[in-house]
Amino acid sequence: MRRWIALAAVLPILATAPPTQAASGGTPTSRTADASAWPAAYVGMRAQAAVGAVPPRAASRAILAAGAFARPAGPGRDDGAIGSVPGDRVGSPAAGGKYVALGDSFTAGPLIPRNHGKPFACLRSDHNYPSLVARALHAGEFVDVSCSAATTAEMFRPQRVLLGSNPAQLDAVTPDTALVTVGIGGNDVGFSRTLYTCAGLSITSPRGAPCMRHFGNTLNERVAATAPRIAAILKAVHERAPRALVLVVGYLRILPSATGCWPAVPASAGDVPYLDRVERSLNRMLAEEARRGGALFVDDYRGGTGHDMCSTRRWVEPILITHAAAPVHPNAIGMRVVAARVVATYAATRATAAR
């Protein structure tokens, strides 16, 4: 019953790409600091940064070399995961800077306890990856304006949600911002809604590829159409916060590359590799736009083999959830994996710039 209650709660938000919004969505901490309080690595970072995700072992070594935080403990180290990000045991020379998190529901963390911030219907968890990163880096000010169902358009305009609205997310980025994470693009492609459509179609042909026949090349065309929107967002971030380090955060692996696990995850055998290719295409586009737009890309798809929706060690919940999280969205373990990679990318970049 808990699974169906959670599904009913989140479906209206997943299925709606709302047009507008306005209210304070962030939860800043008690002190504000200028970007100059963050490491000198930020100065000229856009000119120095090499784009691409940091391999887990190299990232861990870079973290230790930079003295960014103690080696993380806990589950999640296998197959590409760095581990948990325990905020109370992590110290960072980056303490004091302003961190702004922009993004959609893969950033917000719907139904992961505990919901916080306004508006409530953004379903923003205090254990999403931005919250974990803020604690790990001891950010002086933390503003999380991510919101479920957000598209690239909601970076520039308010987003109406149930019983409220979320301001244009870019409004949170100010000249004193030192770190910005951007996790957006999936709703422009319509990936979550597509998976529900494919689930319905799978009943007609569990061993076929009805979803691929239905969508054809439409999803890849949507990915291509989203690219200039990502470029515009990165340009706007740099204009608003010239000294900020900007990280584009990719999407965790959702499906395996082979036949899937119908009916537990209702996608037909031939549609599973098709949908996996679409997600790969989305992440490749984000990585390329990050490279072009003076940002770093955090590759969260990498290392996801054995942690997709079909796995018992999943980082993303299936349609019939088994952990407290929205269907087809990261669970708490997935959020810890993403947070660790964000922190590792930051630390490795800082270590590189300090050489």
Classify the helix fraction into a percent range: 25-40%
Estimate the strand proportion. Answer: 5-15%
Q: Could you name the CATH class? A: Alpha Beta
Write down the Rg: 19 Å
Low-pLDDT residue spans = 1-94
Largest sheet: 5 strands, parallel
Total helical segments = 11
The number of domains is 1
Mean pLDDT, nearest integer?
78
Would you give the CATH topology? Rossmann fold
Q: Order of helices and strands, N to C?
A: HHHEHHEEEEHHHHEHEH
Q: Look at the helices and sheets and give the structural class.
A: alpha/beta
> Based on CA inertia axes, which overall geometry fits?
globular
CATH A-level architecture: 3-Layer(aba) Sandwich
CATH superfamily: SGNH hydrolase
N-to-C CA distance: 55 Å
Q: Strand order across the biggest sheet?
A: 2-1-5-6-7
Query: What's the total count of β strands?
Result: 7
